[in-house]
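The pair is quoted verbatim as follows:
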Amino acid sequence: MSHPLGHRAVILGASMAGLLAARILSDRFREVWLIERDALPRGAAPRKGTPQAVHPHGLLARGREVLESLFPGFTDSLVAQGAMLGDLGTEVAFDAGGHRLAVRHSGQPGLAVSRLAIEAEVRRRVLSRPGVQLLDETDAVEPVHDAARHRVTGVRYLRRDAGEGAPPQTVGADLVVDCSGRGSRTPTWLRAWGCAAPHEEQVAVGIVYASRYYVRDGAHAAGCGGLDKAAVICSATPELPRPGVLLAQEPATAGEAPRWVVGLGGYAGDQPPATPAGLLDYARRLGTPEILRLVEEGEPIGPVIRYGFPHSQWRHYERLAAFPAGFLVMGDAVASFNPVYGQGMTVAACEALALRDALTHRHGLDGLHRRYFRAAAQVVAVPWQLAVGSDLALPGVPGPRPLPVRFVNAYVARLTRAARHDARVAGAFLRVVHLVAPPSGLFAPGIVARVLWGGRRSRQPLRPEGTASGAPRAARA
């Protein structure tokens, strides 16, 4: 443990952001309490508070790097559980507008695994750290605010098993971190404490996606459709505004077959039905051979499930002139993104590094919120720019499109056209998407020249609309 900054830190919420905050704070506080309203499972199982966790999730390359640095052996542990590790250039296919980007070996490993397994592995490691304790099935009533000193000094909480009419208990804390997600009550608490709430930026994406799991063995063991791929990613474009994904997944339980998960989505009322036939119809229109073959021929595990996401949001805490000391906000409680871009876990991991850096400042806890919120805003800015820019390129997503947004979207459209046959352009694009390189890399002179020249060329789409085999088939129920 580094030199302790205080006796106790309390974290509201034990999802990915809360667990990663606990990992960082356990190095600087003697005790770290995690207060979680759900009953947390012991292994990789769903829970009520994160219904989206059973749908496909992407762990971007930068996110895997950070998790590996915080939890050495993290990648190997998940591979041992059945995750697939593959090169992002050659073993992950990326399609845009019905065309596949050129591939080459990138040297950048990607991990195909479920959100449930990632969270369970992180949770297991965090809860084994000295001083970390979990209070699940516990409601965080409110932080304790000392108006005279304008600082948070603890948390009032109520155990679900306390019995009817039981009063809340109070625990003192040197630092409280709100990791309670999109529904965070911090804006309400700030108003009650006489502070301004943060400006909230929103983009109404209105996306709905349907998902289904399939057995990954036999004809679909190493790669679907005979291709050795760990994942196929289909980006929505103005011409084909339907995102899709096919990801390898670990077995649900030990001894079972490994799985595939397919997720297909639509915007602006274009909602995939939660039926096998509806999923197959969407797969046919998407036209990606691997996804279509699996939906046609694969052995399903469970029903088609659906999830909707109304809007991306960013609460700009870094702009507030006044904020109570001893209090922070992290994860989806700050910013949450359209899930089709797979940015959430990676952003939470990078925010954890920002928290670590802010804590190592020579002033310790003094002014921590100002340092952290400035750094967190820098973490959020790039994925927000990428996600919102991509969403606003779609005609069904409402919102202003000023000249810079239109210019960048026009350039990215041309870039993805060039990336169909130029592996260097494709590689630069994927490094930015995976947050291992800044967006400015797409405007390097060498890349711009290739985009302007290569963006004029065309290539036949992957396959005309229809079926993988050429003859229509019914989906397996």
